[in-house]
Amino acid sequence: MARHYGMDWLRIGAFACLILYHVGMVFVPWGFHVKEHPTVDWMTIPMLAVSPWRLTLLFVVSGYASRALLRRWRGPATFAWRRSVRLLVPLAFAVVVVVPPQPWVELVTQHGYPRGFGHFWLHDFFRFGHVAGIGLPAWNHLWFVGYLWTYTVALALLAALPRPPQLQRWFDRLFGGIGAVLLPLGWLLATQVIVFRRWTDSQDVINDGVAHLAYFPAFLFGFALARSDRVMTAIVRWHRSAGIAALAAWGVAVARELVWPGGATPPSHFVDLLVWSRQVHCWGAIVALIGFAEIHLNRDHPWRATLTEAVFPFYIIHQTAIVLAFYLLMPFALSTELEFLALVTATVAACWLFYLGGREIPWARPLIGLRPRLPRSREPAIASVPTL
């Protein structure tokens, strides 16, 4: 398999959007670990532009990368073991060390928790219970890694089963035309709207079955897409139309914010329209972005390898950096504009420090999601396939 630089750039861009999205969560009226008061209602409009598709796209890209990894390691067992190490070691480290400041700040700022962080970490974080309604211990934003590991194990089990040799050909035929747009969209509408009605995720890998019905097929779609020039060609052909449909669906969400601001409840028929349009927005944007990446971004750049490697460490640390930066900025009572810029600057700086510092310490590399550093003579000539 040739490396698809466009998918690398798409992954990098998606995680950059995720950082900005989580900074935005501080300011909008939606629930988050820290909150600006008063909230900035208009910021929900750009947030709604990325909310429906950001996570599903990451699962598609992760499935795409998994195809190359499975091929490289030549066996489902080796694939499952190596991916488990790459995902579970940093997940465990982050849950124990990186995540705890988030619920502590949330308890202090929103629930009047009187104890310092040391007492909280030693006595409350690992209690396997609730403090002020917050379940502890928590994995917070790292739920994505847990879901991805679950799908990785499921993929390894599927790859170990006997399967028809023409399976890839069936995928090419089904999705090699307008089916690349309509079939996944039909699946999302059926599972997320018609049979069930899902607005968000529970972030509980055991009890989030409806979300798995969206994310795991997206992961498998990316896996199959990695070996299908025919389906990629279809995506390129239809990506503009899909993008227009996504923009129209976003317009429905914007109309809801403008006509019923401040949390007002729209009529039931408009709520139904919102649920349907959210899925159109989701898959339409994903097709548009993959098509754009195939046409315009499938080329290398000196920064690509570094940014590709940095994505997982950035993801691990970014939300804790946002929460702590906001907590430290609270006494200064900055304007909304200055606070937003300060949060973005502090978060990006913390991400780079976490990555650049951790990658130079051999024992820390696996903890932040990086491969152990090989002797120079054994390093591969081609940069590693993305971790997530």
UniProtKB/TrEMBL annotation:
Keyword Membrane: yes
UniProt cross-references to Pfam families, sorted A to Z: Acyl_transf_3
Gene Ontology MF terms: acyltransferase activity, transferring groups other than amino-acyl groups
UniProt keywords, alphabetically: Acyltransferase, Membrane, Transferase, Transmembrane, Transmembrane helix
Acyltransferase domain mapped to chain residues: 5-355
Domain of life, per lineage: Bacteria
The keyword Cell inner membrane belongs to this UniProt entry's keyword annotation: no
Transmembrane annotation, as ranges: 12-32, 44-66, 87-105, 142-162, 174-197, 209-226, 238-255, 275-293, 314-334, 340-358
InterPro entries the UniProt entry points to: Acyl_transf_3_dom, Glucan_succinyl_AcylTrfase
Protein name per UniProt: Acyltransferase family protein
Native source organism of the sequence: Sphingomonas guangdongensis
